[in-house]
Amino acid sequence: MDVFSTYIEMSQNMRNYSETRHYNKTESNATVIIASRPPGHYSVSAANLVELDDGRALIGRIDQLSNLDKDQLKQLYKQQLRDGAHGSGGAGLGLIEMARRASEPMEASLEERQEGRAIFSLRVTI
Amino acid sequence: MPAMENSPDLTIEATQSSPSVIADWQRGVITMRGESYPENSFSLYEQILDWLDQYLDMSDAPLSLDLELNYLNTSSVRAMIELFDRLESAAATGRSVAVCWRYDTRNPRAAELGEELKEDYAFPSRSWPMNHEHAASRRPIRSTGTGDRGEPGGWKSQCNEAARSAEASVAAHGGSGGTAGEHYSPFR
Q: Which of A109, B13, B65, B188 has the most CB atoms around it within 10 Å of its CB?
């Protein structure tokens, strides 16, 4: 269930993002990979094209989340549930959800490309 | 969707990523069953919110939410919060409202979500574990002892009523697992 929910949040986050940025089909390309990581763990990974500034903000956000314990994440989740504007992409909430399901800190990286863009990669281990 | 004058009920078929919804005006029960992770949860929940607003506005009768949702994505949870907020406001004005949160005992995340939602609200809500045989056939677990159904009009009897109505509604709308006429109580 946690793998499934992480997969859903990740793929919907990416789709929402590329729609917000009006990316074309090629630019919106993304794949989510689920792999088993013995003993008893799974990783859910994905990469997608982002604007460099957005990517840097995301990395910062993920670093912040990785410093929080499960109780703090729960409080933040509840706060974000109420604060987030309805209908907005709300990647914030999805990221918190993933952080809550993760068994180790989320791993994110940014690979710069041309024209102020980058490939953002995220791996969540469940 | 039929106009309000023709049928005050709201019926939405389940899809792979969205639950079945039956809002029964006569009984004052909104039943949702399945999983909720649509791309656009707002368009789904907007219909339910609209129905709820009309019901709360045009009627004085009690309202129950009978929920059996195995999984909600974050945007569905956000929409669910809006439903619960409406109930909370109605309860604050003396309206009788209740939520029954049913979950399969093999699904700890569903139990946990129910608990987390409950923490933020004052209106009555009841977690209702089901063992998986019953959950699989979408029927609530049966009580072995004599149940406490609460005082007439209290939320417990309302919740119980919601459950019975849900079964009847699902049966009437062609769903599975109808137990019309059968008596049970979830309350120990």
A: B65
Q: By the 8 A CB rule, do B133 and B160 touch?
A: no
- Residues 88-107 of chain A with CB under 8 A from chain B are 90, 93-94, 97
Would you identify the CATH topology of the domain B10-172? Answer: Transcription Regulator spoIIAA (3.30.750)
Domain-wise residue ranges, chain B: 10-172
Q: Which of A1, A16, A74, A75 to mutate to test the interface with B (most CBs of B within 10 A)?
A: A1
Closest partner residue to A12 (CB to CB) among B73, B79, B82 is B73
Bigger pLDDT: B89 vs B122:
B89
Q: Which of B74, B75, B80, B85 to mutate to test the interface with A (most CBs of A within 10 A)?
A: B74
Sheet holding B29-36, edge to edge: B10-12, B20-24, B29-36, B63-72, B97-104, B125-130
Q: What pTM did the predictor assign?
A: 0.78
- Give pLDDT < 50 ranges for chain A: 86-90
Torsion from C-alpha of B113, B114, B120, B125, nearest 10 degrees: 180
Q: With bands split at pLDDT 50, 70 and 90, how would you rate the model's confidence at B82?
A: very high
> CA-CA distance, B77 to B23, in Å (whole number)?
19
Give the model's pLDDT for residue B126: 80
Instruction: Give pLDDT tens digits for B139-177.
Output: 433 333 333 333 344 445 555 555 555 555 555 554 443
**Residue in this structure with the two tokens 């977690």, named with its chain if needed:** B127
Q: In this structure, what token pair is assigned to residue B119?
A: 């923490």
Q: Per the CB < 8 Å rule, is A1 touching B75? A: no
Contacts of residue B184, Cβ cutoff 8 Å, sequence gap at least 6 = B140, B142, B143, B147, B163
